[in-house]
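Last lecture ended with a question: if I hand you only a sequence, what can you say about the shape of the protein? Today we answer it with a concrete record. The protein is TonB-dependent receptor. Below, first the input exactly as provided, then the predicted structure, then a couple of comments.
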Amino acid sequence: MLSVGVLFFIGHSALAQKVKKDTASTKNIDEVVVVGYVKKSVAQLTGSSTTLKASDIDSPSAISVDQALQGKVPGVVVNTSSGSPGAFQDIRIRGVGSFTASNSPLFVIDGVPVVNGNNAVNTNITTLSALASLNNDDIESLTVLKDAASTAIYGARGSNGVIVITTKRGKKGKTKFDLSTSIGFQNEAYNKMNMLSGGQRLELLTEAVANSLNLSKDLAFDRIKSNNIGRYNLWDGKEYNWKDLLTRKNAGLYVVNLSATGGDDKSAFYTSIGYNKTEPVSIANPFERITGIFNYTRKLTDKVNFETSINGSWLTQNPILEGGSFFSNPYLTRVLLTPWARPYNADGSFNIDNFSQMTSIANTLYTQKNNINWNKQMRALINNKVDYKILKNLTYTTRLNIDYMFNDYKSYDNRNHGDGRNNNGSANRRNTQNFNWVSINQLNFVERFGSHRLDVSAFFEYQQNQRDYLRAKGENFPTDGLTNLDNASANYAVASNYEDWKNASYFGVLNYSFANKYILDATIRREGSSRFSA
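The predicted structure:
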């Protein structure tokens, strides 16, 4: 059989060429997995890991990358601590490892362990995930290391598993711009909880009085009116569904990202700026975040490569006092408030006088409007890396990385109604400043001979973390318009705390393989911490 290929181009004559036999060629490209300090091909892996690409975690409704993990990785359970935007996600990799210590995994961004956890400085408010500072659109891949074989390189810190995040890098070619926007809405996953109407509450109250006093329903109703049971005489006869009043329907999601990437034979860059505004399903104020990143790689000489990454963010979370019985917690009060309680007066103002007589619970619409409760976070992640090729098979790598985080929390309970009424107004201010830096020096030797492959790496890592905490509160304010602590005149309280710890580690990794079938992977690590006594 004769095979002939014919090519046509506009403005040119046709060209026919006999096709030669077996001209197709194939080339296998090994998939590479980033495990933090090193990169390995899938064929060289001996531990258990799962890698997600950017498309796997692309979800506009997921503010933080830990939230985007839900249901994506086998053996990983993600439980949210709150339905509020930006809340901390409780992650468990292959179950619980300790009954008393932390079970949270270690997070590594671009090869460096970073600060993670709940950054809310008040235990009574909505949690705040440290990973809420990252823009999911800037993430290239995410690898979950699950077992001891894959996490051993991180020592004791990796005992609960490790999640390795790699941000996007520049691509060679003409500069390309990408603009993406997402607009959506969200509602409560379960909204079939039906509340009592005003008439149903009266019917239930009448039945309760009749049963307890052994009366007929008519006499029980007369007793309710004469004794003002349940504050019946204050009821205007109208019905108010507080679940609907304190729940935001079709809460908005607004995401905008603008990025650019480009490069040549010696350098490449990736940069982006992003904005996220997410409304909670309660009537609290929205979560807002601005992020920016600049990643740059440069081949300085034939032997020296340089990389830098600057990742900054600024966010505002408007948390809810979910950790206790507070009048400003709409998730609590919406199921406790009586349907007889009128939210507004006839002139449209908030009803607080009649409200206080009707129920011991405050008008949450008023407290949400007149109280202050916000959590602001500024974060900067700076990663620098230099590779020096000493010999053909020997490379020296040094990294210097900084993770700076500042959290500022302010609350104010108004003087007139709710939690601050008895104190004539009360305010809290809490600041946390965390400075974490890591230095990593690495020697890597790779040799291939025949079907044999040997990869040996030696590391020295030094980490220092400094945390400064300040808290102050005060009561008795002259007006709700002056909410700073210098306007308080009673019950001052100030507390502070400072932490400074250091880790130093030596470790080595050996990977040997024969014909990509028989693999030996060994890790040894020795580390010391200033948190243990000498």
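Comments.
1. The chain has one domain: 35-197+239-529.
2. Residues 260 and 423 are 53 Å apart (CA to CA).
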